[in-house]
Amino acid sequence: DSSSKLSAAQEDPIDAIPELGEALSGCLDAVSFFRNPKITHLLLNLIVRYKSGVSDFSFQRFSNLVMTKRITEQLVKNPTYIQLTSEQLKALGHDHLIMRLCNRYHHYVAYRIADYLNTSYEPIYNNWAHSLIFSNDTQDHIISLLKNSGHSFDYVQLATAACKRQGNFEQNVKFATKLLDLNSVKARSLPL
Question: What's the predicted TM-score (pTM) here?
Answer without folding.
Answer: 0.78
